[in-house]
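Researcher: I'm comparing several assemblies side by side, and this is the next one on my list. It has 843 residues spread over three chains. Same procedure as the others: predict the full complex and return the structure.
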Amino acid sequence: MASILSLSSTDQYLIIGLKLSALLVSGVVLLVFLFLLNESLPLLSQISIFQLFSDSSWHPVDGFYNLSPMLTATLLSTMGALLVATPLGISSAVFSRYYAPAFLKNGYRRLIELLAGIPSVVYGFWGLTTLAPLLATFHPPGVSLLTAILILALMILPTIALTADAAFLGVPTVYYSSAAALGLSRWRVIKDIVLPAARAGIFSGLMLAAGRAIGETMAVLMVAGNVVQFPTSAFDSVRTLTANIALEMAYAMGNHRSALFVSGLVLMMMVSVLVGLTEYFKRYKQ
Amino acid sequence: MKKIALLVFFVIAASFYWGVFAENSVSNESHKLILTGSSTVAPLVAEMGKRFEALHPDVRIDVQTGGSSRGVNDVRNRISDIGMASRALKADESELLSFTIAMDGISVIVNKNNPVTALSRQQIVDIYTGKIVNWQNVGGNNSPITVVNKAEGHSTLDLFLHYFNLNNSDIKADVIIGDNQQGIKTVATVADAIAYVSIGSAEYEAGHEVNIKLLPLEGIAASVENVRNQTFPLSRPLNLITREQPSGIIKAFIEFAGSEQVNDIIDGQYFVPVKH
Amino acid sequence: MINKVATVFIWLLAIFVIAIFIFILSDIVIQGMGHISWEYLSQPPSDAGRAGGIAPIIVSTVWIVLSAVIFSAPFGLATAILLSEFTRQENSLSHWVEKCLDLLASIPSIVFGLFGNAFFSLFLGLGFSILSGGLTLACMVLPIFIRTTTEGLRAVPDDYRYSAAALGMTRYAALIHLIIPAAMPAIIAGLMLGIGRAMAETAALIFTSGYVDRMPDSVFDSGRALSIHIYDLSMNVAGGDSKAYAAALVLIVMLLVINSLAIRLTTHWQKNRIINHEIIF
């Protein structure tokens, strides 16, 4: 398309301007990375990376920088949320596309779309005022890893449902007609044909949801209890890396502040790995 | 579609109007004072700031929290004009100046419905270090104690540790909180929680129908009165910190904050004024 | 047989999911409804937010979001135009830009908060201000806006471009007069989505636009956003819950309006593209 149309001088200026814009925009992510690195250096130049995982505890004021309890909390809460939200999300998508009667179809999906826009602080607030006290009657203190997992699951459910729905949209019509010709029942079609065909799309949706769960700050800050420890049960209070940054950033100074930026880098890396995985699967596992 | 666009435009224009015109007109010479620091002092100073702004319409007082250590550091690094600290200056902070504007104490609080009415010093230590885990061992109900500790960087934590001769790593907490209010809120909503907060905040909230009660320390009731007559063992000064001799607006505000004009604000927040 | 079991199962799960969300939403509506009034929307907060209203907070929120849009829209539009009009999809520049945008989209919001604090507040010296917050949010909103806009531009039929070339118009003129207007619904939808995202943001704003709940005089003032107000009332103010419900309700309503607008616009321009799968079993 572009090649057959010759460029006037206005257009040449336009293209330069557009390219500069695009470079600026793509430069932002580099800028973020560079600034994080810059702020992390004071600490990284003084301690070895091992200390981030082998120090006796997280007491940055006294010089102990062990991130692993918080890293564990982040990973456990994300995996737990995925475990809970994936079946619910996928079945929501299956429902809205294949089982809902005509008058419900669009309405259900609209509802999920609107729910995707509810801010995390509102979920966290609800968790703090309703869910945590409810859980506290079973097992105090009510703010715990489990609460965080449940709230995170609520937050990523719409994402999973919507991407699964989009994946189902991409299943070729011929699959359905072939299945009908073979006389397969609705559930068989979904289980053995649609779900495998939509596998790639569902997977990238899961990665997206995982990225969101890893990066979630406010909701977990409000419901997880914020004690830096390895949880021995789901009812233990935990602190995720994100919540830690939010809690301590306000007063962290010197090496402590650097340590927080280091944990920010760790978070960035974790999510980049997820993005990379998605790319890999998109490209090679079609 | 057009109607919605019009509505959106109207909302934006209206908010612009609010922001620019509906305000008392601010002269071009407006001064801004930035204060950061202790989350105990912040609400008090914010109220004082509002009154100061009413008396001096061209001044803006911005108050942010972050903990006493941040208050000290920000004023040192010229990030803020005045620092707020809920403790005295330490030995390595001697190049700074502090001005005490009120006195406060630290009290242990429990849920109002908790039958326990007093805890000895040793009991408090044992609860916080995890040696006592059930309320029935100290005369309460048969339920596990939810220990609430303060996050690092807050002088409330430092003073508590100092008084009970503990290190932060000795404490076995179930929940960690940042500001006083969060601690109060946790104790008010979790029946078996125990926390320690500023007496001023605690009495204020208890008087505003929040579900907490203050426990006496070493037999002395935790009350503002006892901080005033200096019988309460765990008291502390609330300070404004500057890096040099104050002048101009900074001087005006510090004098205002230490004067009798604000005694009612200090009393209203349940702290003890230094001037009577 | 298993077909029937599966059907029941799916229906139950769907109802369960909807029930939870309706429970949460109605909880907020019921508890927050009582506080909403004209006074609430036009008065400043008092008593640490337990009394009074949220007028300055709404204004701060609008200003923060506006700054985010003003800074991200031009660059976002330009990048989208580049990606859709002037580069092939496999071209290395567009590939590089798209990868960068994917990465940008995946950065956690608190990390943006760290960046915004280090770069806008400290390095550029903006301190705690609405502008700091707005610029940080602009970075966060870019990927969403660019993605939607690019798709919208790509959806404009090539006939438009060929006709313009036949008439001897420059690419620039074709863009201004034909292509961008044709893609306008998608562009606005992208803006709305970005605005929705910006309004829901909390973590990135805590360290950039701050907590001050006074009516801001300018974008250089610190201003409290609605989401931060909810956070402060629920975490830091004892007895602040009821006001937090009210603020949450206001925020949700604002977001619902914006997101429905975005969705309505998106389906409007997608109507020409999507082949509806009618599954007949």
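Model: For your comparison table: The longest strand of chain B covers residues 97-111.
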